[in-house]
Amino acid sequence: MRRTQEERSQSTRAALMAAGRELFAERGYQAVPADEIVRAAGVTRGALYHHYGDKQGLFRAVFEQVELEVTAEVEAATKDAPDLATVLLYALKAFLDACERPECRQISLLDAPAVLGWAAWRELEAEHGLGLIVRLLEDAVEQGLLKPVPVAALAQLILSAVNEAALMITYAENPAQARSDAEQVLAMWLIGLLAE
Q1: CA distances from 29 to 15, 21, 22, 63, 106 (A)
Q2: How far apart are CA 135 and CA 86, in angstroms?
Q3: 1.10.357.10, 3.90.1150.10, 1.20.120.1200, 1.10.150.320: which CATH number matches 59-193?
Q4: Quick check: 182 pLDDT over 70?
Q5: What's the Cα-to-Cα distance from 163 to each of 12, 106, 159, rounded to whole Å?
Q6: Residues forming beta bridges with residue 194, ordered by sequence position
Q7: pTM for this model (two decimals)
Q8: What value does the mean pLDDT of the chain take?
Q9: With contact defined as beta carbons under 8 Å apart, do 191 and 184 qualify?
Q10: In the predicted model, is pLDDT for residue 196 greater than 80?
């Protein structure tokens, strides 16, 4: 049975995404030439340009895929939490767990701000991780569980703090101790934001 053009296009996009994701996670954006990606995907360079414009376009699509997955993991980890304090702690743990994976660490934390530019990276974060934090905080303020604060500013600061914690853990001589310390400090800070 012959595949349709749409099926062939989907297969090509999936092969490029899988190859790009693996290579970007393993070595970082700058160390991966476009020719290597298309060879690994088993497609032509023209296919890369047709579907993603260029290597940076493919990177953006890979980054968005990783962000969607991490956001879904955090949401899943918090869905059965009995209260806001527990939601915050579960969300923090789920995010730091995700950041231990090389693809999340390399693609989302290290490469994305530089490759996409801060403004584009922040815009995509707003749709995913930052968007989730904003929604949690808005719900908490509405329910009277969070002291009244400028939610957008607090959400960006929380995201920055948890991203920095993930980077601290990544570069620490003792990652387990760094994670324990970061989780303790962030948990105290986040729970301290809650209304009495």
Answers
A1: 17, 10, 11, 11, 9
A2: 16
A3: 1.10.357.10
A4: yes
A5: 33, 12, 6
A6: 146
A7: 0.87
A8: 92
A9: no
A10: no
Please identify which residue in the block is written with the tokens 């296009």: 9
pLDDT single digits (tens) 9-68: 899 999 999 999 999 999 999 999 999 999 999 999 999 999 999 999 999 999 999 999
113: three-class secondary structure by DSSP: helix
Reported confidence tier of residue 143, pLDDT bands at 50, 70, 90: confident
**Rounded CA separation 21/61 (Å):** 9
Query: Which tokens go with 134?
Result: 């904003």
Domain ranges of the chain: 1-53, 59-193
What are the residues whose beta carbons fall under 8 Å from the beta carbon of 60, sequence distance 6 or more? Answer: 52, 116, 120, 124
